Amino acid sequence: MNIDSRVSGKTKLVGLIGNPVEHTVSPLLHNTISSKLGIDMIYVPMKVEKDGLMDAVSGLKALNFTGFNVTVPYKNEVMKFIDDISKDALLMGAVNTVKIMNGRLYGYNTDGEGFSRSFKEESGTTLKDKKVVMLGAGGAARAIAVKLALEGAKKITVINRTVSKAEEICQLVNNNLHPVAEHYGWDDVEADVSLEESDVIINTTSSGMFPDVNGYPYPKPINFSARQIVYDVIYNPSKTRFLEEAERCGCTVINGLGMLFYQGIYAYEIWTEVKLGEELLKDIFSQFRCITEST
Ligand code: ATR
């Protein structure tokens, strides 16, 4: 019998709080990186019931956790228990990563950074001066819109079924960052024009996500052109109907696996203050892709 010595009294603790957490792939990512780097840290998912968030957060602090991720449905609610929230996370209205130092809780949002790193890595270009159309105006859209403005996008057009939510995101961007955002509803002709004129189109809705594999985030087919980069935050299926149609038109297509990967990497970097090298990241990402596609 082999003695399992992976966890000792010195092992640093990190994890995820949310509900549900059963299907998360984050432990695979974080624990693989720790083993590869020889860092003595373990990542555990923890399901937290509706009334238990405050107790969970103070419990993690009392248990001397290094930090934790926060997922649905607590990314907004957790903010009231955090001592210091980064400017990006405040604008994004959500915290998904917390670091605990000397009994203080520091909150970050790594979703926007995850999006931007995966976009650059997979498209080979940056977001600067791009005309971008976003479909959807939920939590993911808000984080991405803030990041797009911070990275110097020339124009951000938010199109959403419920137009008031698109308007809210645009006001946030225009009032706090740069006046580059405009919003449309599904019935506005300008929405179609923006789609045609854009350099980048991003689906931030859940339409098309398993099991809704026939879902499409816009009420009519989009006229993609080959010069466009088309991004879907969904990674299951790995190619949504939206991405399949864009690919058929010759576009560069990117799914949400990279965003998931890099938001986790950025959280890992925040907790450990270790900056992961390019080659190592590419290697881990290809393994991560294999693992997630087989789970
Ligand atoms: P998340 O945090 O993952 O972004 P969310 O905050 O619930 O999730 O936001 C979901 C977004 O997807 C919303 O913009 C929603 O549109 P509405 O604001 O009109 O509800 C959009 N969405 C969800 N299902 C959709 C569908 N079938 N077609 C188009 N948009 C959809």
Automatic annotation (TrEMBL):
Record-annotated Shikimate dehydrogenase substrate binding N-terminal domain positions: 16-98
Quinate/shikimate 5-dehydrogenase/glutamyl-tRNA reductase domain location: 125-207
Residue ranges the record marks as coiled coil: none
The SDH C-terminal domain, residue ranges: 256-275
SUPFAM superfamilies: Aminoacid dehydrogenase-like, N-terminal domain (SSF53223), NAD(P)-binding Rossmann-fold domains (SSF51735)
Signal peptide: none
Positions that bind NADP(+): 136-140, 160-165, 233, 256
Biochemical pathway: Metabolic intermediate biosynthesis; chorismate biosynthesis; chorismate from D-erythrose 4-phosphate and phosphoenolpyruvate: step 4/7; Aromatic compound metabolism; 3,4-dihydroxybenzoate biosynthesis; 3-dehydroquinate from D-quinate (NAD(+) route)
GO MF, any single term: NADP binding
Subunit structure: Homodimer.
Catalytic function, reaction form: shikimate + NAD(+) = 3-dehydroshikimate + NADH + H(+); L-quinate + NAD(+) = 3-dehydroquinate + NADH + H(+); shikimate + NADP(+) = 3-dehydroshikimate + NADPH + H(+)
Family: Belongs to the shikimate dehydrogenase family.
Organism (species): Clostridium thermosuccinogenes
Enzyme class: oxidoreductase
Protein's name according to its UniProt entry: Shikimate dehydrogenase (NADP(+))
Gene3D superfamilies to which the protein is assigned, alphabetical: Leucine Dehydrogenase, chain A, domain 1, NAD(P)-binding Rossmann-like Domain
PANTHER family the UniProt entry points to: BIFUNCTIONAL 3-DEHYDROQUINATE DEHYDRATASE_SHIKIMATE DEHYDROGENASE, CHLOROPLASTIC, SHIKIMATE DEHYDROGENASE
EC number: 1.1.1.25
Keyword entries, A-Z: Amino-acid biosynthesis, Aromatic amino acid biosynthesis, NADP, Oxidoreductase
Task performed by this protein: Involved in the biosynthesis of the chorismate, which leads to the biosynthesis of aromatic amino acids. Catalyzes the reversible NADPH linked reduction of 3-dehydroshikimate (DHSA) to yield shikimate (SA).
Binding-site residues, shikimate: 24-26, 71, 96, 111, 235, 263
Active site: 75
